[in-house]
């Protein structure tokens, strides 16, 4: 049984729904019209000075829609230029269509093409000549229009002028056609619009002709009426004269002379005038302005001349009917009457110099303005006499045809007092003094703000026409005052010579230098300058070092000088500066135990074996003494002044902050900036080049200080101080014995020694350009190891493809093999190191230890007890009982020394055997730490093909010297900064955790290296280990290649099994092809092809014939 469902009546009927839909479309149309008008207002009121996404300014917003309108109109103008007006046109057009219900159903299909129309309008606008008021560097079509117009002109085979005209015509027609399509017009609508315009034009034309014809007809009727009345009067007068003459003849019989003459006289007086009266006296009149009509103008009569104008046609056709009264159009002759005749200007009119300004030479602007002027001349009154030109009177903009100038040339304003930039270093040499971290807590010197100097921009009236500006010339050729507005501050005066002070107590030796302490400023007598000191003490030879003398090093050439007494301290009273504590008097100094590295006279002999009983560590006197190094220390006043000047420079760039501390060092000085709240560190870091320029420095490095809220700004000193290698080896950080593999890196920014432990790194990657100090740094690292460790504790493998840098160490007892200079042998040496690492891991696993230190500790205990290492190993099971059988293995305990592999140039090795080198380095970097094998690798080409991602991942500790670009700095360190280093040993040290520290490497001359090497060679020739250069035997070499994944020759066990399976398949199926083997075994194409080639070599299958088929040579089984 079916139930009929009653349909629910709709809430609104169809008429109400249609009405609601109609009203909704009307509201949507009104909203679109409002949006279009707002877009037009936004685009029309665009000003490039408004703040937007592309510019930041404090000026008030001039856009009618406020900051939002300025933010939207700026990118629109930059991208499409004047084409952005198309957006407003589309919105208004479709808003009207929705409001009027005309074609709203075509909206979606037409508006889709609106972006194309706007882009076409942008390209068309790019072809319009730019006027002087256009404020942008691009054309009126925006960046997109300029790009597309340039591309189109480049593709056309015509010249630029003809091509531009052709493009403008084509683009104009396309713009009109596409614009009509986008705004929703159809052919019918366009036809209706064309008909309406045509009919309207015809109607206007006919109405004009009708008005002119009706006025002429009325004037003609009036003239005909006057002519008829005058003819009647003349006929009546003739009749009266005839009647009078007849009456007089009949009345008088005799003719008297007087009586005869009288009527003749009357008749003569009563005679009618001629048909065409004589022309009146000519007036001085100028013809009236002509009307541009196609019809021939009829005679229009002035009010004064109408009674005097007579034509023969009017006499022949008298009007008998009543003359109509002229209407409004009949009064045209009276309306066009002028009181006084005016001269009509033809082609020349005198210019009023008060009103005209000569415009720029754009033909388009001249043509448009000339049309307006001509139109005004037709209705303007008579010209007054041109006044005399007064050059002192400012020109007005009344009818000036030229636009107002965008930039006014103004006389440069008088510059205010400028701040003179003091040098970064002190002008005079101060006595030697040591300090580490001088915080600036004293009152700061008041630095006046720097006023901007340059030509002021003023709104001046435009220049008179007689003084037209000349063509624009290059800015570099204009005269700008340079020295008138620059005046040094009053405080910048030469400082007077300080009075001499008594000499201070002698400074203790470098080996016993105490750690720095903080002290309050004390009243210390001022110190003399070097000239006064030399004059009083008799030292007349205070010479500077010849810095950077050697071309392959970054150090200094030392000169022979007399030992000078230590200089006294300078007078410092105001700022609180971190100083080193003065040395205590000799009687108060506590006795200090001798340090291992400072044993120069009688070092204790160390015994390793019978061969090296008398081996001793190199003494420090083989290195150059730091006493002859000239110290360049800035005074506290100079540091305070530089800090205030740096604050002023940062304020000029909008960076607000305070310099809270200064860390002077031997090469650079770091100023710690406490930024204002909300200031990003990246903003200050990006100003590094500008800060260096403003401070007159070679370079500036800006970086954050780890663990602190300050930003470090590092500026180089005017005179660099040489970092002594001997001084670092004498420091407590190197000689305290905590570092197993110490590396003397140099001094940090504050001048404190930096010593790193290679055992914890565990590998080191060094990069830097040629001459940046990379090779010298490697020498210092090698000497650091040689001064600390004996041949029993350390063995070296040196690889030097350049054959120059490390060859000097050939023959020292620490070497495992001669210095490797052949890149092919370098691969063999690295493979031997990999094999040694595997052997060490096997030995440590037998002993149950985790690293080399635990293994050597067990060896020391066994040697002390005189025991052998024993190890119980299960060798099998008893055949009778089935119990496991154990055997005891004994082997001699032998100490394993550390092995440091040093590669001076890695790029040369990567070019020869990149895959093998990378595999060896990767294996060693991943696993060699526990076995006591460490890598130090250097390259002068830090590119991604040399320092691959695998190498970077396994070398967390890196050192970068000066590089050429930011890309190289990012490659080696992961961030910028290495390109701003000073070179000559200036480096960035990145330890684990990506902490970067700036360090200044010490200098070691070639003579010092040779002295140390000769001292080591005196203890006999080295004992080389076989196989390092020659390579291991074949079996071991195959094992090493297998470990490295380089085993490409021969089959492994797995490949042998695959080969057997492939042969069985071929014999069984009697088919052989690479794809068949690949499909059957489920292996790759390369492996399948290798198996087929192996079967061909062994005679299982034949070679492929001309169609690629192979015959099976093995009989069926």
Automatic annotation (TrEMBL):
Domain of life: Bacteria
Subcellular location: Cell membrane
PROSITE patterns: FTSK (PS50901)
Topological category with respect to the lipid bilayer: Multi-pass membrane protein
Function as written in the Swiss-Prot or TrEMBL entry: Essential cell division protein that coordinates cell division and chromosome segregation. The N-terminus is involved in assembly of the cell-division machinery. The C-terminus functions as a DNA motor that moves dsDNA in an ATP-dependent manner towards the dif recombination site, which is located within the replication terminus region. Translocation stops specifically at Xer-dif sites, where FtsK interacts with the Xer recombinase, allowing activation of chromosome unlinking by recombination. FtsK orienting polar sequences (KOPS) guide the direction of DNA translocation.
This protein's UniProt keywords: ATP-binding, Cell cycle, Cell division, Cell membrane, Chromosome partition, DNA-binding, Membrane, Nucleotide-binding, Transmembrane, Transmembrane helix
GO cellular component: plasma membrane
One BP term from GO: chromosome segregation
Bias-annotated ranges (Pro residues): 496-505, 581-596
GO MF term (any one): DNA binding
UniProt-recorded name of the protein: DNA translocase FtsK
Domain FtsK: 751-970
Gene3D superfamilies, A to Z: 3.30.980.40, P-loop containing nucleotide triphosphate hydrolases (3.40.50.300), Winged helix-like DNA-binding domain superfamily/Winged helix DNA-binding domain (1.10.10.10)
Transmembrane segments: 27-46, 76-100, 112-134, 154-181, 193-212
Binding site for ATP: 768-775
Family listed: Belongs to the FtsK/SpoIIIE/SftA family.
Low complexity bias spans: 410-448, 506-516, 597-606
Biased composition (Acidic residues): 529-539, 547-564
Main location: membrane
Subunit structure: Homohexamer. Forms a ring that surrounds DNA.
Region annotation Disordered: where it falls in the sequence: 388-606
